[in-house]
């Protein structure tokens, strides 16, 4: 066999960021930030993984209203930004690059986590059939999400502003190399995008263009604050995560990426299939090559990042088929030196599911490297 040279380990320029390789650490929720403040242990965790070409932080709430789980970090208070600054400084010292994932959960929340115990907010007052995680006495407890209220149109500029303010603080104060707008996995922007969660009759519901409006406004506001070259977006066209459903996702997401093509983004990050699950969903077919083509044909120059259940062979195949970056999630939990392990073809540590969400160093910063 004439094995093609791997490009996984080749450097690449992505927007304003020069990355040492094509391997990206996907965002991973770990619930280890009490009071939404990043800790020194988080700095250790990310720094251990700094050999990735790019680290994407765990999803990080842009406002208290945008929070849906216990002990996830935020970006809206001084102590949170100071905490993140310790993380980004340590990662940079280790030669890494890190962007923060900007998160508003919308209806995937619980009254316990909302300002003054209020209802979570959503495009429409439709409860998500999904769970959230509260940490009680240090243990994760899965609870049903609370019934949301529909956002008033007058509230939407404030939400766009929260994304923009968080992006600006992330880059200017917390020292991130850039930001990723989380428009995937059934959270607020995805709730607006999809017909299953958006029954609005104003300019933000109905047609594809209307359902995509909030996401596009957010991306425009974020790029105005930190530049397109520091901005990425994450999409998950067919994931059923958090009760996400759209009756006709292909034209919706083709439309969205065509609109994004003019925004000079650093990258577009696509979860193929069910988040953390099957890459192919028989009842939700989707043509990802056509999606990428729609973006390129509309003039999109950003790096194309693919994610979900990849191993080395699948990652190399993705690059051969035109992806620029490949994101690995769970393998990075258990393998801080995943880049080196991929280079050597393994072996790979297995992750301990019991310590994914919440807790301390155990199952977080204590996974061994090949070097010991
Ligand atoms: C797992 C648990 C909680 C949140 C996502 C931010 O799916 C998440 C998430 C994942 O994007």
Q: C-alpha Rg, in Å?
A: 19 Å
Uncertain runs: none
On the 0 to 100 scale, the average pLDDT is 97
- By secondary-structure content and strand pairing, the structural class works out as alpha/beta
The name CATH uses for the topology is TIM Barrel
Strand content: 15-25%
Following the backbone from N to C, one meets helices and strands in this order, namely EEEHEHEEEEEHEHHEHEHEHEHH
Most strands sheet: 8 strands, parallel, barrel
Protein model, in words:
By secondary structure, the chain is α/β, with parallel strands linked by helices. The protein has a single domain, classed as TIM Barrel (Alpha-Beta Barrel). Helices cover 30% and strands 17% of the residues. The strands form four sheets. An eight-stranded parallel beta barrel has the order 3-4-5-10-11-12-13-14, surrounded by four helices. The chain has a two-stranded antiparallel ribbon with strand order 1-2. It has a two-stranded parallel ribbon with strand order 6-9. Helix 3 runs parallel beside helix 5. The longest helix has 19 residues, at 208-226. The protein is globular. The model has no long low-confidence stretch (mean pLDDT 97). It binds 2-Phenylacrylic acid. Residues 29, 59, 69, 185, 241, 275 line the site of 2-Phenylacrylic acid (8OZ).
């Amino acid at each position: 066999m004439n094995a093609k040279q791997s490009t996984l380990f080749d450097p690449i320029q992505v927007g304003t960021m020069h990355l040492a390789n094509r391997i990206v650490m996907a965002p991973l929720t770990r619930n280890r930030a009490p009071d939404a403040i990043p800790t020194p242990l988080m700095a250790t965790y990310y720094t251990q993984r700094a050999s990735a070409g790019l680290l994407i932080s765990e999803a990080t709430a842009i406002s208290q209203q945008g929070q849906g789980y216990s002990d996830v970090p935020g970006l809206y208070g001084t102590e949170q930004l100071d905490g993140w600054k310790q993380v980004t400084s340590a990662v940079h010292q280790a030669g890494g690059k890190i962007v923060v994932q900007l998160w508003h959960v919308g209806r995937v929340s619980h009254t316990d986590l909302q300002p003054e115990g209020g209802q979570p907010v959503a495009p429409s007052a439709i409860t998500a059939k999904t769970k959230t995680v509260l940490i009680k006495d240090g243990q994760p407890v899965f609870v049903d999400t609370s019934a949301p209220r529909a956002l008033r149109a007058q509230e939407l500029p404030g939400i766009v502003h929260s994304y923009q303010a968080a992006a600006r603080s992330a880059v200017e104060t917390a020292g991130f190399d850039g930001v990723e707008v989380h428009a995937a996995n059934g959270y607020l922007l995805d709730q607006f995008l999809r017909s299953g969660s958006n029954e609005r009759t104003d300019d933000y519901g109905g047609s594809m263009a209307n359902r995509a409006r909030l996401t596009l406004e957010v991306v425009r506001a974020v790029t105005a604050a930190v530049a397109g070259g520091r901005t990425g977006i994450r999409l998950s066209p067919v994931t059923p995560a958090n009760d996400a459903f759209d009756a006709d996702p292909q034209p919706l997401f083709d439309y969205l990426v065509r609109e994004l093509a003019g925004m000079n983004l650093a990258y577009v990050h696509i979860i193929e299939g069910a988040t953390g699950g099957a890459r192919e969903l028989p009842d939700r077919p989707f043509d990802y090559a056509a999606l990428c083509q729609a973006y390129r044909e509309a003039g999109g120059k950003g790096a194309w990042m693919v994610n979900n259940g990849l191993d080395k062979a699948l990652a190399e195949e993705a690059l051969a088929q035109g992806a620029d970056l490949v994101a690995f999630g769970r393998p990075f939990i258990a393998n801080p030196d995943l880049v080196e392990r991929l280079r050597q073809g393994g072996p790979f540590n297995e992750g301990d599911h019991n310590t994914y969400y919440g807790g301390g160093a155990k199952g977080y910063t204590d996974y061994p490297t090949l070097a010991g």
